[in-house]
Amino acid sequence: MIQIQNLHKQFGANRVLTGLDLDISGGGIFAVLGPNGSGKTTLIKCLLGMVVPNEGIIRIDGKEIKGRWKYRQDINYLPQIANFPGNLTVKELFHMIKDLRQKAGDAGELITLFQLQPFLEKKLGTLSGGTKQKVNLVLAFMFNSPLLVLDEPTTGLDPASVIRLKGLIARERQKGTTILITSHIMQFVEEVADEIIYLLEGRIYFKGGIKALKTKTKQNDFEHAIAAIATSQDHG
Amino acid sequence: MGKILKYSFFDLMRSRWSYVYFLFYLALGFVLLFLNNDVAKAVITLMNVIIVLVPLIGTIFGIMYFYNSREFTELLLAQPIRRSSIFLGQYLGVTGSLTLSLVMGLGIPFVLYGLLRSGAIWDFGLLLLTGAFLTAIFSALSFNIALKHENKIKGFGYAVLLWLFMAVIYDGIFLLSLIVFEEYPLDSFSLVATMINPIDLSRILILLKLDISALLGYTGAIFKAFFGTGLGFLLSFSMLCCWTGIPVWLLVRNAKKKDF
Q: Out of A51, A71, A72, whose CB is closest to B259?
């Protein structure tokens, strides 16, 4: 599904990705983890073509994405910070994205699920952070695509909405969607993820199941296992 | 691209600033006609206003829109849309809505005053066309500046400085060099110097059309003598097209390399 070879990216003097290789065969939930500034968002943005890598090849479904844009038809993306054009109403935004993607999307069910009906006619600029995130989630889940990229999906959500989100993710997984998630909430990751991709200093430090990670770090608790990677690096 | 253009255009049409700009030109048109009491004379006065003001508004509007629509741009970048379509669509949306405000704002009072029956209709048409060109040129330049500078204050400063340079400082340097080098033949120098500033170029273009030798000044006189009206026209128009085309091309090129 996704093949990344020798990916390099630096912003000015700051080298974010340094020869990253990644192979994701498809289906299942992959959690992209790593300390702050380890390149998680940059990796995701490279995948979407929002950040142009300095070096390296990214292939999705066997085709290189460089210079192409149509492949984004098959990716749903949830950005980390939910910012929308403030002059539009929620309804207009849904309509606009449907129009731009030229794809049938089902927003109705998701709007009910996240109880967004009272906000449909409101302008996006006036919404609270959590409500914006719900709008963001509707946009990410309303289309059927084989690849779903969620950057910090739980930000700003109340517990009830997090439970609904987990339900949605589980449903997508059953459909066979490949889901990439970044999150700092380890409990959430432990619950949903099939595999962990741990980024450290611009490379993949670990890729595998949660059990393998616990064995590798000799920790019983997932959160401690993740922390152990970071601290062992600090000392080394 | 059409869809981006549509959404940008409607977004702008909904913003208060388009109306402020429109109402300003509406008021300007009525006041000028009231004071001059003659369509042809009003066109000349209008030229002086348009030549300076349209670039300024194009610059400020362009840079403000680019920075304000950053979120919209990021949302679009994740969609299956070509990058060049996103930026061209937004650019054309800005230019289109500004030009519409200009044409409507000035057109309404002049048409009401009997423009269609007067001989000044072609002069007026040319004035609006140059206004459209200047809008397109300066919004493209400001889009380029905004793309280069993440820092809004810096970008805004550079954009205003660019306008100040083109509208005021350039002429000062030009005049100074004419005085300093007055012993030398300056014909070709002043011709080239006029051609490479779109504001000067527009001024000459309109003056050539209006055929007012008194206002042509030194450069205009040379321009006219050198090219004759027909060729001078053609050349200035192709220069204005270059001035629009090159920044737009740069915008598309730089947008493709930019990280978001």
A: A51
